[in-house]
Write the structure tokens for this entry.
Amino acid sequence: MVTKASRGIVGVFCALVLVVSAAAAQAAIVWELNPAPRQNGPAGNSALTYTSSGFSITARGFDNHAGIGAPHELFFKNQTDIGGSVEFGLGLTNTLSNEIQPGLHFIQFDFSSALAAGLMHGQISVGSVQPGETFAFFGSNTLGTLGTQVGGPFGSNVDDKFVAIPGFGQFSYYSVVALANDVLPIALQADLPPVPEMNALLPIIGLFGLIAATTVWRKRRAQA
């Protein structure tokens, strides 16, 4: 017979397992740059702030003047796929195809708040990358300055796929630039840091499991 005490122990054990599982399932934060229902038109501003699960990043559009940016209005693009490449995301108003053009523009993402919160493993998804088109990532610690290339060139094989930002956290600002033809950022992603409280619960869960098993074994032995 299982007593009320043993049921309580098992209940607490199950609750702890559920808490840990829930924490693990919420490890990634994603910022969609043109979320559903997707729009197709000017954003009305050169800077947009996105918040996901309480964490914020800011996207800014720039014209590129030898690595120094001049604000350029952003554009929500949503059109039919071309050659298997997606055509939705965040672009620029009044540019060819409303996308980032090589040498002329860049879209910069401010990760400073997310980095201060401990987020890590930053990634960017870029679309409208047909065969022969390429893009790169640049990092900087100065708003509006393109900075140093940290990744790329990347091609059509990663269209609409998250690509890791090399050395994420070294810089506060990361930009997407087109190297050949034009491209369109789609989304950003970063991982939550490990939660020490959750890690500390693991020995406690094991202890509760041992206590529950021992209690049930003793009761059955006493009744034998």
Observations:
- The chain has a mean pLDDT of 86.
- Residues 4-23+196-223 form one domain.
- The helical segments are 4-25, 112-116, 196-223.
- The CA atoms of residues 116 and 193 lie 11 Å apart.
